[in-house]
Design brief:
This protein has 22 helices and 14 strands. It is α+β, with helices and mostly antiparallel strands. Helix content is about 50%, strand content about 10%.
């Protein structure tokens, strides 16, 4: 299974809007990607700085770009670019201006046919790397030496940011300014409140976005350093063996699933099992439990668990369409039914944490014993201890940022959408996401002008047809999926997030180019979690499909979200298009003891639901054994 590539500068445009290419040494040029018929003018939905440009053609055509299906699997909504634009700065500045990571530059972004492509920069000048290393040692050393204290401060900052987000309110402008504005001599009025509330909302997102990466690159950096030591000291050691030495650490991303397990256990204890198992609809389940004599105790536990643990996005949290458990209870309630059935059958529903910890101790001791000198063992001990210390943040930040905060953020934007509906700018609150955040400033001022003057605002007639145009364009772009990569394969990939999170390495890029001759029945990726399993594929493109998962299925997806954790107890293995050894799919599978291969590039487009497949998490190979028709 190979990604097509091109010998030419521009590749060969296809009639379907994607640049098809022929075998060779490079991927298709980003400039060869044609606009699909019906999507003309898509560029107007996005800021100029996120687009390819003729003025920078030589530079942009000479870079390696890969599709970020991990965070944005579909064409970007104009408003949702706030997330990508945030981390474009926030993640990049940590590697370039704050620490800086010696061999790593920032990560460039471009939107091509609505899809986000990114490109890591590398620092290759030895003198510059040495200079940066000195600066990095001082700055990062301070964080590593005071990690636990700084992490505690980080939690306080993140929680405060969330509390301030909760306090932001949006409401339609009143028919008449309240008397309180007059008699309290405020001097500023509802129009000012509306604009400043929106400004506070945007600033709050960028504040949390900055916290997101304050410690993250250091977490990946510590793990990468440990990984490099192991690869040098133990030639041929696998990535999952290295990862097993830091596995078994309880992290917040498992807490929501643990809460669901606890609710299942309580339901059995309170003799509510029949109610839980007898209703597919969460609301019906809640109503029936509330009417039961023992129901109040369970409802109380449910309400306590729900906030904050059900602010758990069903996706990466980077798009407004990724709704949280608290918005849609079907996923946690489906998982709860499975846990109740398992408990009634006498099964242990706890995660196999003790087994994973025991394996961690065994593997660490085994490899430590191979080291020839006390100095080597001392280095090994220090590196593995640091990797274990920083690892919880690498995952825990996700709950505070992408799940709790971002899910709340999207709900606040919907409140703002209600304001535009009330003032006749839009028909539906969801339409607000078709405006870029900077356009919303203009729309709000237009709204204020109309309210202040009594003249109908221009937005009443302007925004509806524009939103409809953008909806049509986005649907066309969505029907034309992107190529996984474009441009010239890189000589160096040294950016930590690119390697650890996306799994993009020189080796994986070469496999995408097909130099290893992958055939149509085999995919190769990152061996992310050890073991081998055979089962029927369950291809999941949208979280809505998670309810279709059956016991023993092998999950095939672009990327998993942490909130999918309850589904993992039903799986026999997992495969993803994107991801590296520290992607969520990899981490969750290791903690659940499931074989996993990530970063395959093409699993969701080449495997069909129902096919019998084999997943070898030891070698990173996925094989189709039997077609769906069998």
């Amino acid at each position: 299974m190979t990604l097509t590539s091109s010998n030419s500068t521009d590749g060969v445009p296809s009639s379907e809007g994607a640049a098809q290419a022929v075998p060779g040494k490079r991927f298709a040029s980003p400039f060869a990607v044609q606009t699909p018929a019906g999507a003309e003018g898509w560029q107007s939905m996005y800021p100029y700085y996120a687009l390819l440009s003729d003025e920078r053609r030589e530079f942009e055509d000479g870079k390696f770009w890969f599709f970020d299906g991990m965070h944005n699997p579909e064409p970007l909504y104009p408003f949702d670019t706030i997330m990508t634009e945030n981390w474009w700065v926030a993640a990049s500045q940590m590697s370039t201006r704050v620490w800086p990571v010696p061999p790593a530059g920032g990560i460039d972004h471009r939107i091509i046919n609505g899809y986000l492509y990114i490109s890591p920069n590398a620092v290759t000048d030895p003198d510059e790397v040495a200079q940066r290393a000195q600066e990095f040692a001082v700055r990062a050393g301070h964080y590593y030496e005071n990690w636990d204290e700084i992490y505690e401060q980080w939690v306080a900052k993140a929680t405060d940011c969330i509390e301030r987000l909760k306090a932001i309110r949006f409401a339609p402008l009143p028919g008449m300014e309240p008397e309180s504005s007059v008699f309290e001599h405020r001097g500023v009025y509802s129009t000012y409140d509306l604009l400043t509330s929106y400004g506070a909302l945007i600033e709050n997102l960028f504040e949390m976005g900055s916290y997101h990466f304050e410690m993250l690159n250091l977490g990946y950096g510590a793990y990468l350093t440990f990984r490099e030591f192991c690869q040098a000291a133990f030639p041929g050691i696998s990535d999952q063996t290295i990862a097993s030495m830091v596995s078994g650490i309880d992290i917040l991303l498992f807490r929501p699933d643990d809460e669901v397990r606890g609710l299942a256990k309580l339901a059995v204890e309170l003799e509510l099992s029949d109610i839980v198992l007898g209703n597919d609809d969460p609301d019906a389940t809640l109503n029936a439990i509330a009417a039961h004599p023992n129901g109040s105790q369970w409802i109380s536990a449910f309400e306590k668990a729900k906030d904050p643990w059900f602010w758990f996005s069903t996706g990466a949290g980077y798009t407004h369409s990724d709704r949280a458990w608290i918005d849609d209870l079907r996923l946690p309630f489906s998982a709860m039914r499975g846990y109740v059935q398992a408990l009634l059958a006498g099964e242990d529903i706890r995660r196999p944490l003790d087994e994973i910890l025991a394996e961690r101790v065994r593997v660490t001791a085994e490899y430590r014993s191979y080291l020839p000198t006390d100095a080597d063992r001392e280095s090994f001990d220090g590196l593995v201890e640091l990797a274990r210390q920083v690892f919880p943040f690498v995952e825990n930040h996700n709950f505070y940022v992408e799940h709790w905060h971002h899910s709340l953020f999207w709900s606040k934007v919907r409140e703002l959408g209600d304001v535009f509906v009330a003032h006749d700018f839009l028909d539906d609150r969801e339409d607000v996401f078709y405006l870029h955040r900077n356009e919303i400033y203009s729309a709000l001022y237009d709204l204020n002008i109309g309210w202040a003057t009594g003249t109908e605002a221009r937005g009443v007639t302007y925004w509806r047809p524009e939103v409809e145009r953008r909806k049509r364009i986005r649907e066309v772009l969505k029907a034309n999926p992107p190529l996984p990569a474009l441009g010239i394969p890189p000589e160096f990939i040294t950016e930590p997030l690119t390697v650890m999170l996306w799994g993009i390495t020189q080796e994986s890029v070469q496999e995408w180019l097909g130099v290893d001759g992958q055939d149509g029945g085999e995919l190769r990726g990152v061996a992310a979690s050890a073991g081998k399993a055979t089962g029927r594929a369950r291809v999941i493109i949208d979280p809505e499909q998670l309810h279709e998962v059956e016991d023993g299925d092998i999950l095939v997806c672009r990327i998993t979200a942490p909130s999918w954790a309850p589904v993992f107890s039903r799986l026999s293995a997992a495969v993803s298009d994107v991801g590296g050894i520290m992607a969520h799919t990899a981490i969750v599978c290791r903690e659940y003891g499931l074989p996993a291969v990530v970063g395959t590039g093409f699993a969701t487009t080449s495997i069909r639901t129902g096919q019998l497949i084999e997943v070898d998490g030891n070698t990173g190979v996925v094989r189709v054994l039997e077609d769906v028709s069998a």
